[in-house]
Design a protein that fits this description.
This protein is α+β, with helices and mostly antiparallel strands. The chain has 19 helices and nine strands. Among the domains are: 134 residues, Beta Polymerase, domain 2; 61 residues, no CATH class. A five-stranded mixed beta sheet has the order 1-2-5-4-3. Strands 6-7 form a two-stranded antiparallel sheet. The protein has a two-stranded antiparallel ribbon with strand order 8-9. Strand 6 and strand 7 form a beta hairpin. Helix 4 packs across helix 5. It is globular. The protein starts with 14 loop residues before the first helix and ends in a 10-residue tail after the last helix.
Length: 399
């Protein structure tokens, strides 16, 4: 075990954990110094590689390993990392081309849409589409355009795989996205009208984000994208609700944003977060970024964030949970996780509303799965809290 160079980690960590954390460090020289000390002490290379995949940092690990020029890495392990990285680069490039094609389809119909996460985020943060792993593509669109966008996708050979047979008004009122699949392209697309959890009081309306969206060039094409401030906000909302900060790359991405930020960027970011109703979640993201990636905050911003002691406690819990069970912690969900999510909201009234909604409200997945008897739907509302307490749901309570 080795002493941690990260101020946010008070206990000793293993060499494998230190290597993973070095992937997230914003300062390259510091990262290489840590790797120089820890790579020779690594004993579980298989576990390290699997953990890098779990945390979404396999590409970053390979990049840092090559930069370190360390002879402590077994040749077969370096080759395995190279193969993983190359495969992800090819997949990311293929998905990038598919993304541009989908955006063009929507643009032809006069629809405004922008990509969320995925290759465009990787390019914006790391300058390399291959350094983030994307399971599917995500496109955001205004609620009023969802019906038209759905028709365009169906005509292009996509099949709707969530919310099937549910009226569009009900989907817009109860969910935040609908998923499509194109078997011929082996492609899954999530079409969003809100970002974050499906409950309105905790998610971000695409219409609000569209107001600050800007044009950028991606692979030689002009595409609409999130503003820099909104990119940070969306990452924090995604980390807080979809993952509860269980993957290291979610924090590394914030570090990449912060390392490119000017001192004058931080106050507008916090003001934008407050305007969107997610200041505490962005505060948690800033604290995780500072303590995990070493990306320093301006002194006035640091002192401002320190006033939110609840955010500091939640960030501390998220940081501790990231490696609580070793290299590949699987955070437990259920009522405890919902409490964490609720406390991360800005106002007590929103906390209470989110908790009640998450505990008692079934989503379209619940209805589609057949787990709710159609003739006895009230039983589900009554049994849901018990099932959550017993951990009978997957991540997010089967939403």
């Amino acid at each position: 075990m080795a002493s941690s160079p990260w101020g946010g980690h008070s206990k000793a960590i293993s060499p494998e954990q230190a290597v993973l954390l070095a992937c997230a460090l914003a300062d390259q020289r510091q990262a290489l110094a840590v790797l120089g000390q820890t790579l020779p002490a690594v004993g579980d290379w298989e576990g390290l590689r699997k953990a890098a995949l779990h945390h979404g940092v396999a590409g970053l690990l390979y990049k840092r390993a090559v930069e370190s020029a360390s002879t402590a890495i077994p040749a077969e392990q370096l080759e395995a990392l190279r193969a993983l990285t190359t495969a992800n680069e090819r997949r990311s490039l293929r998905m990038s081309v598919q993304l541009l094609g989908l955006l063009e389809l929507l643009y032809r119909e006069g629809l405004e849409a922008f990509p969320v996460k995925g290759p465009v985020m990787a390019e914006a943060l790391y300058g390399d589409v291959g350094l983030r792993h994307s399971v599917d593509l995500d496109i955001a669109i205004r609620p009023r355009d969802v019906t038209t966008a759905r028709d365009v996708l169906l005509a292009a050979g996509f099949q709707q795989i969530t919310g099937v047979g549910i009226e569009i008004d009900r989907l817009l009122a109860s969910e935040c996205e609908v998923a499509f699949k194109n078997p011929d392209r082996e492609l899954v697309l999530d079409l969003h009208w809100r970002l974050g959890p499906r409950f309105a009081h905790a998610s971000l309306p695409v219409a609000d984000l569209m107001a600050c969206a800007r044009m950028t060039t991606f692979l030689g094409r002009d595409v609409l994208t999130l503003s820099r401030e909104d990119l940070f906000v969306v990452m924090c909302v995604h980390g807080a609700h979809s993952h509860r900060w269980d993957q290291l790359e979610l924090v590394a991405a914030l570090g990449a944003w912060g390392s490119a930020a000017a001192e004058s960027d931080w106050m507008p970011l916090l003001e934008r977060a407050a305007g969107l109703g997610c200041l505490r979640r962005c505060t948690i993201g800033c604290l995780l970024m500072r303590d995990v990636t070493g990306c320093a905050l301006p002194a006035d911003i640091d002192s401002r964030l320190a006033r939110d002691t609840l955010a500091a406690r939640l960030a501390g819990r998220a940081r501790a949970a990231m490696f609580a069970e070793g290299l590949q912690t699987s955070p437990k969900d259920g009522l405890g996780g919902i409490v964490w999510e609720s406390l991360a909201l800005d106002k007590p009234a929103l906390m209470a509303a989110h908790f009640v909604a998450r505990v008692f409200t079934p989503g379209t997945w619940d209805w589609e799965s057949g787990r709710i008897p159609r003739h006895l739907p009230r039983l589900y509302y009554l049994s849901r809290p018990l099932r959550l307490a017993l951990g009978r749901f997957g991540r997010g309570g089967s939403e």
